[in-house]
C-alpha cells in the first residue's frame, strides 16, 4: 500500500463534543421511532409541523441535520418535549467513540514486494479518526516504499521485533527492539530490515494519510 498524499475533508470537533454526523443520525432515528409509535405518516407529520415531507425524510435518514426551529416544530407536532427528540445523542457519541477490532476480524492487510513487507491496519475507518495505527512487517532484506506525507503530518514508530533501518531525509537511524522514532512525516522516509529475522513495528500517523 503506497502511502501517497491524499487530501481528506473531515468535520473537526473538540473533546466531549458530539460529531454532527452522530447527532444527525441520532435525532433522525429518534424522530422516526416517535413518529412510528404514534402511527403518523410523513405527510401527516409534515402538515402538522409545517415542513416538507422530503425534509423530514432526510432528517430521519440522517442525510440532513435540520435546524433548531424545525426540531421544535416536529416535537410540538408529535406532542413531545424537545429533550425527548434529543434523547440518545450522548449515548450514540459514547458508542461511536469506541472501536474494538478483534485480531480474528482484521482483514485489511496489504502485502508488497512479493511478500517482503506487509502493512496491517489496526483499526477501521481510519480517515474518520485522528490517528492511523498500522503494523508493519518486514522480512529480511525487505523495505517499504518511499513515503512523504503532507506538511503537518507526524509519525511515531515502535519496534516490536527484530531491527529496522529508518531513513528519514538524509539521515539513517538504526532501530532495535524497544526503540522508538518520532518524526515529521512530510520528510521523505523509508524503512528497511537489514537483519536476518522478521521485523515488526507499530506505526502511528496523525492525521491519517493514505
Description:
It is a single chain. With 210 residues, this protein is of the alpha+beta class. The protein has 2 domains: 20-96, 434 Repressor (Amino-terminal Domain), CATH 1.10.260; 103-206, Sandwich (Jelly Rolls), CATH 2.60.120. 27% of the residues lie in helices and 25% in strands. The strands form 2 sheets. The protein has a 6-stranded antiparallel β-sheet, with no helix packed on it. A 3-stranded antiparallel β-sheet has the order 6-5-8, with no helix packed on it. Strand 5 and strand 6 (171-176) form a beta hairpin. It is elongated.
Describe the SSE topology:
Layout: H1 20-37, H2 42-49, H3 53-60, H4 68-78, H5 82-85, H6 89-96, E1 109-112, E2 117-121, E3 132-138, E4 154-161, E5 163-168, E6 171-176, E7 180-184, E8 189-192, E9 199-206
Antiparallel strand pairs: 1-2, 2-3, 3-9, 4-7, 4-9, 5-6, 5-8
Strand content: 25-35%
Which architecture of the largest domain does the CATH hierarchy give at level 2? Answer: Sandwich
| Rg (CA only) | 24 Å
Q: Count of helices?
A: 6
Overall pLDDT: 84
Computed structural class:
alpha+beta
CATH superfamily of the largest domain: Jelly Rolls
**CATH C-level name of the largest domain:** Mainly Beta
Form type? elongated
Strand order of the largest sheet: 1-2-3-9-4-7
- Percent helix range: 25-40%
CATH topology of the largest domain: Jelly Rolls
The span between the termini is 8 Å
Amino acid at each position: 500500500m503506497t502511502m501517497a498524499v491524499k487530501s481528506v475533508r473531515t468535520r473537526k470537533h473538540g473533546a466531549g463534543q458530539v460529531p454532527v454526523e452522530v447527532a444527525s443520525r441520532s435525532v433522525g432515528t429518534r424522530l422516526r421511532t416517535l413518529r412510528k409509535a404514534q402511527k403518523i405518516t410523513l405527510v401527516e407529520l409534515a402538515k402538522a409541523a409545517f415542513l416538507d415531507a422530503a425534509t423530514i425524510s432526510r432528517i430521519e435518514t440522517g442525510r440532513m441535520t435540520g435546524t433548531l426551529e424545525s426540531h421544535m416544530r416536529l416535537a410540538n407536532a408529535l406532542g413531545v418535549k424537545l429533550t425527548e427528540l434529543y434523547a440518545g445523542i450522548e449515548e450514540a457519541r459514547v458508542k461511536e467513540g469506541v472501536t474494538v477490532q478483534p485480531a480474528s476480524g482484521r482483514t485489511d492487510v496489504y502485502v508488497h514486494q512479493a511478500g517482503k513487507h506487509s502493512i496491517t491496519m489496526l483499526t477501521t475507518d481510519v480517515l474518520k479518526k485522528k490517528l492511523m495505527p498500522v503494523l508493519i512487517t518486514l522480512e529480511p532484506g525487505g523495505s517499504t516504499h518511499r513515503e512523504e506525507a503532507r506538511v503537518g503530518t507526524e509519525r511515531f514508530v515502535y519496534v516490536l521485533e527484530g531491527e529496522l533501518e529508518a531513513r528519514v531525509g538524509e539521515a539513517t537511524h538504526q532501530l532495535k527492539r524497544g526503540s522508538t522514532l518520532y518524526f515529521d512525516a512530510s520528510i521523505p522516509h523509508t524503512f528497511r530490515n537489514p537483519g536476518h529475522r522478521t521485523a515488526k513495528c507499530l506505526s502511528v500517523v496523525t492525521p491519517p494519510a493514505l
